[in-house]
Amino acid sequence: MTANDQPHRDRPDDGRPDLPNGMMLEVDDLTVDFDTPSGNLRAVDGVTLRLAERETLAIVGESGSGKSVLSRTLINLLAGNGRRSGSIRIGGRDIDQLSKAERKHFFGVEVAMIFQDPMTSLNPVKRIGVQITEAMRYHLDLSASAADKRALRLLELVHIPSPAERMKQYPHELSGGMRQRVVIAMALACEPRLLIADEPTTALDVTVQKTILDLLDELRQERRMSMILVTHDLGVAEGRADRIAVMYAGRIREITTTDRLFADMRHPYTEALLNSIPRPDLPSHTRLHPIPGRPPNLLDPPKGCAFAPRCRYAQPDCLESEPPLDGPHGHDWACFHPVGTPEGAAALAANEEAGVTAAGLSMSESEEEFV
Amino acid sequence: MAGTGTAHLRDGDPNVLVRVEDMVVEFSISSGTVHAVSGVSFDIVAGETLGIVGESGCGKSTTARAVIQMPRPTSGSVTFNGTDLTQLGNEELRKVRPDLQMIFQDPISSLNPRRTVSDIIGEGLRVWGARGQWTSDRLDELMEAVGIDPRFGERKPHQFSGGQCQRISIARALVLDPKVIICDEPVSALDVSVQAQILNLLEDMKQRYGVSLVFISHDLSVIKNISDRVMVMYMGKVCEVAGADDLFARPAHHYTRALMASIPGSKAVVEASMIEGELPSAINPPTGCRFNTRCPAATDICRSEEPTIEAVGGDHYVACHHPATETPVTVES
User: Fold this and answer.
1) For chain B, which domains are there?
2) Coil, strand, or helix at residue A329?
3) CA of B125: how far to CAs of A86, B103, B120, in Å?
4) Residue A250, exposed/middle/buried by CB under 10 A (0-12, 13-18, 19+)?
5) Is the CB of A294 less than 8 angstroms away from the CB of B161?
6) 20 to 30 A from A128, CA-CA: which of A222, A324, A332, A342?
7) Residue B262 distance to chain A (closest CA, Å)
8) Are A179 and A275 found together in one domain?
9) What tens digit of pLDDT does each residue of B227-246 get?
């Protein structure tokens, strides 16, 4: 389908109110705690974010970094034992100020989410058509036939061949790539202005992955939509995002434009993450550099910078206090001894001299004894 | 291929450990026959890592598993150390099994949660009659080799992280001193920093114990890093076989080129090689070259005649009527 076909334009762009100060999403000092049997777990720790209209922000991090909890909190899908503090404004509206009636048609409409696993996010015993039209009939109060028509157009939009037949099929009759397209069509059904995609292509093959990411890009441009792309894959983030936020242990450690992050990274964790990935441009059998140690226990987080115990730059001050997230020209990092600065170089040289970091990590490249 | 042929087999090499010729694996289901693997040939030299890459459903896992006769292939031969495994009875096959081990994708579900780690690693030794001090020395040695503190031998799998469980799986696979280990997506479920640890560990274990690896992955960067030789598969057929660096420098099959163009973040300059559409049905695969329905270079001959595997220079083989040998691509990251 070409852009000239003007697909699915019941609510034209122009009908949408302009965003105050152009910001689609404003998150301020967001903290999420969970009550667990072993104590309080702080999964997200003081996150502040801005996302402009049409912008794609990638949130990158490993398991346990808080990236998924953060994205679920944005769409009000916090588990029962979770508590949130800090404010979230979507399209200029504070989500805590919404009336009950407004809330009902806010999440899933203004902001929608694509989940990782296309098999478990579809109902196996309901036909595709029913699942896509459900939200439109509930939120937009469309008649069955109007919703069906619109579902057909949505399936065309996500490039599903013979959509009329697909509407009558069940999820198991579709391939993984087709199922993920259905999930995307469902997320787009109510024309969200903010789309949160949590690892949308992790379960898919690389060829399908590329098609899906291309599709999301195309839709974002066409529909003036902002997107948060949650991924563990720096490669995916590099190709798709305008800006990247690197998360570790519940906090954003570095955030800047994609180009600058790769050209001029500042946080040692960003550097360590990049060095641990096999790269297709390096020869076969190139030795990889794993990040030593393991992520901190969030039930009992370390004092100071959470990455310090695994960091080759760590100095005594890193163990004492948490560095603030700050920096010039839209490039923020949270580190006292950043990569590519005189402070960082001095810290690294001092640690190499001593053979050990301030946190007691050995500087030798040999594999850690036991993990 | 995606086609047939054996031009890429290294018959003159005395170090060939495994030789698979014209292997076919089919499964009967109610709506017909699934052609999972259709006439695949390859060989593995002792101490070599063969990477197998392709999309889900291309038969890469089935191919690797059929090598160790799980399941037994429908036809074709699998020669290991001079013996055709397909001709062996169950008891004879059992005696060969210690030489052929396997590591699975999900490290946690592949370990029995109710047994201790030394019990899990040492089971093979007990089955094969090792007793006493020798067994515990061997366990300590292996646990140290894979980076698990031997004092943790009495712990159970849930007390370890995913990466540690994968280390335990590797120790279990190594305990009987095998010749070949099939690694089926062993790092796909791991975080990138842990993935790097496991890839380095497999590389070290290969050096230390002289074992050959068959490494299956859908991740091309991982495949390039770990493999000596790479085999690209599509719909149960071999597309291309080459040394890892050679394959990435000069991909000749249009399917290989499409895979490379799809690497996230890669700026690969591959003209018009992005493939559209879905994988055809393995119950009723396309005639001729199985890739012809999605190939940008397909012509009439591709729809009627199956290509055979042929050398395109050096140790680089491709099964394609119109191999893209002229325009090398650069994969950058």
Assistant:
1) 1-81+179-191+207-333 (3.40.50.300)
2) coil
3) 57, 17, 10
4) buried
5) yes
6) A222
7) 5
8) no
9) 999 999 999 999 999 999 99
**Number of domains within chain A:** 2
Interchain pair B275, A273: CB under 8 A: no
Average pLDDT estimate for A1-12: 41
Residues in A touching B192 (Cβ below 8 Å): 62, 232-234, 273, 276-277
Taking residue A153's Cβ as centre, other Cβ atoms within 10 Å add up to 17
- Tokens at residue B6, please? 């054996």
pLDDT band of B265, cuts 50, 70, 90: low
Q: Find chain A residues with C-beta within 8 A of B228's C-beta.
A: 284
Phi, psi at residue B124, to the nearest 5°? -60, -40
pLDDT at B161 over 90: no
B248 to A280: CB separation less than 8 angstroms, yes or no: yes
The structure's pTM equals 0.87
Q: Cβ contact (<8 Å) for A238 and B55?
A: no
Interface test with B, best of A63, A206, A367 (most B CBs within 10 A): A206
Query: B244 and A238: CB-CB below 8 Å?
Result: no
**Amino acid letter at A179?**
R
What's the pLDDT tens digit per position in A215-230? 888 888 888 899 999 9
Whether residue B27 is predicted with pLDDT greater than 50 in this model: the reply is yes
A131 assigned to some structural domain: yes
A275 and A369 part of one domain: yes
Q: What are the helix (H) ranges across chain A?
A: 67-74, 100-104, 128-139, 144-157, 163-167, 176-188, 206-222, 234-240, 258-263, 268-275, 316-320, 342-354
Tell me which of A137, A159, A191 is where a domain ends.
Answer: A191
